[in-house]
Design brief:
3 domains; single chain
């Protein structure tokens, strides 16, 4: 394979992103050692990809940072291959060792616990004010009608 064809094939990109299989990785490593142009292109490509990722990255949420901090403080926990054993007690202790205990301070439920009575109170108060407003509206309307009747009676008596 020609050097330009090798560069344009996309194998180097998949190698840098970790998407290549073992055979392709070995082939790329061999080409890097033998061909200076491929090696230079790989360095340039790596800086370009790193710059792109740095430019378009955004910070993770604080919860993720806490989880990562807990993982690093607990030590390196590596997943073990599952082995079928007759002794289930050993298996249960291994499973417990594989999991990380994470304490999450979740305020989502607390917010809803406090807001629910507030919404109920606002709803009840709005109904009370609605009833009071309708009562006073109809009361003033009836009083205005009585006032009009009384004015007409007074005018008729004069």
């Amino acid at each position: 394979m020609d050097t330009t064809d090798f560069i344009e094939s996309g194998i180097l990109e998949s190698y840098l992103l970790g998407l290549s299989n073992e055979e392709e990785r070995e082939y790329v490593k061999q080409r890097i050692l033998t061909d200076q142009e491929v090696s230079d292109y790989l360095v340039d490509l790596e800086t370009d990809i790193k710059g792109y990722f740095d430019q378009h990255s955004f910070p993770p949420p604080p919860e993720v940072r806490e989880i990562i901090a807990l993982r690093t403080s607990k030590g390196d926990i590596q997943k073990k291959k599952h082995v079928f054993n007759k002794n289930s007690a050993q298996e249960n202790t291994r499973k417990k060792d594989e999991y990380l205990e994470i304490e999450v301070n979740d305020t989502y439920i607390k917010v809803h616990k406090y807001w629910r009575p507030a919404f109920i109170a606002v709803f009840i108060l709005s109904k009370i004010f609605l009833i009071a407003g309708l009562y006073y509206y109809f009361k003033t309307a009836s009083l205005e009608q009585e006032l009009v009747k009384l004015k007409t009676e007074v005018q008729q008596l004069k």
